[in-house]
Specification:
- The protein has 330 residues and is mostly helical.
- The protein is 79% helix and 2% strand.
- The protein contains 14 helices and two strands, in the order H-H-H-H-H-H-H-H-H-H-H-H-E-E-H-H.
- It has helices at 3-34, 40-51, 60-72, 74-83, 85-106, 117-142, 152-155, 157-183, 192-220, 222-231, 233-251, 255-277, 288-291, 295-323; strands at residues 280-282, 286-287.
- Strands 1-2 form a two-stranded antiparallel ribbon.
- Helix 1 packs across helix 8 (157-183), helix 1 runs parallel beside helix 14 and helix 11 (233-251) packs antiparallel against helix 12.
- The chain is globular and about 55 Å long.
């Protein structure tokens, strides 16, 4: 394994962390948007309390991926930055609006509360961002991206369905995670059945979208599709087992096991895509070997990552332990 390959593995690990942590936050925003009925306010309050002060910390992983791409694979960074500005700009706008809306609705004596229109901005932005990132990921697999046609990724049926799949996957994760948060307090345990049903619904939608994606995948991303069939089927099975296992665990009120299984389901699918994408960073345009910076630079980047993790991980773990415990819902 070369230094460039090792950096790529580290980037996939960072992407996995972002999908499982930041993705669950985005999914919480999706359920905030779809909250209905007499328990809608309680659901929104639970989501807000579960996200808490850790929501911004999860973007550390996205920042790391961008810095690693820029430092380790500069030509690929140039292609991505000049060809995916439409979906990536949409994702960035969603992240910024989401953060601002969350602050205005949640903090200070004049907090607007989750039912104010700032809450709706937060919810809509939470849906836009994973959709846009899904579209961008699909463009990397198809190679259908060019500086001369910035809207090409959003005209791709494969890309649009990938965006919907990303939203559904984050919603599934959030619903599974929220079951445990709801069960943690007698004041919120009545919300467990609601989020259990949402988890089942999210899993079903993911399955339907996966079936829709199959023919589009083979038609619009044949290079990666062939590799996927050859290299990633075990990971697909692992993802399916994780998804089914999470639903079984939820039915048995085994919420920690459900979280782990749901994380495995999403992570295994992400890994399957990464394995099939290699050695291309952008199919038909940039490979790992073509884009890799000098080995000295990559070694320095790897040392910096190792040192950064030593400094960042312990306080992040403490932060999650302190602030991911939901407060009672009125």
């Amino acid at each position: 394994m070369t230094a460039a390959d090792l950096l790529l593995v580290v980037m996939v690990i960072g992407l996995t962390a972002y999908a499982l942590l930041g993705g669950a936050d985005f999914g919480g925003g999706v359920w905030d948007l779809l909250a209905r009925g007499r328990d809608a306010r309680a659901q929104r309050k639970l989501i807000s309390n579960a996200i808490g002060p850790v929501w911004e910390a999860n973007h550390v992983w996205l920042v790391f991926i961008v810095v690693a791409l820029f430092s380790g694979f500069p030509p690929a960074y140039g292609v991505v930055g000049s060809s995916l500005e439409v979906p990536l700009s949409a994702a960035l706008v969603g992240i910024v609006l989401r953060g601002a809306a969350y602050v205005y609705r949640a903090y200070g004596a004049g907090a607007a509360g989750p039912d104010h229109w700032w809450g709706h901005v937060f919810a809509v932005s939470s849906t836009i961002t994973p959709f846009a990132l899904g579209v961008a990921g699909a463009a990397l697999a198809t190679g259908n991206m060019s500086p001369d046609d910035p809207f090409a990724p959003v005209r791709s049926s494969f890309g649009l369905v990938c965006g919907l799949f990303a939203v559904a996957a984050t919603a599934f994760l959030a619903a599974v995670y929220l079951c445990k948060d709801a069960a943690a307090s007698p004041a919120t345990e009545h919300l467990v059945p609601d989020f259990r049903r949402r988890a089942v619904g999210g899993a079903v939608v993911c399955g339907i979208l996966a079936l829709i994606l199959l023919p589009l995948f083979w038609d619009q991303a044949p290079v990666v599709a062939h590799r996927f069939a050859d290299r990633s089927m075990l990971l697909v099975v692992l993802s399916a087992v994780g998804g089914i296992g999470s639903l079984v665990a939820l039915a048995r009120n085994q919420f920690v096991a459900a979280r782990l299984a749901a994380g495995l389901a999403v992570a295994a699918m992400l890994w399957g895509w990464a394995v099939a994408q290699y050695p291309d960073l952008v199919v038909g345009q940039v490979t790992v070997d073509d884009a890799a910076a000098p080995s000295t630079n990559i070694h320095a980047m790897l040392y910096a990552v190792a040192g950064g993790l030593v400094l960042v991980l312990p306080p992040m773990i403490v932060l999650f332990r302190l602030f991911t415990r939901p407060e009672p819902v009125d």
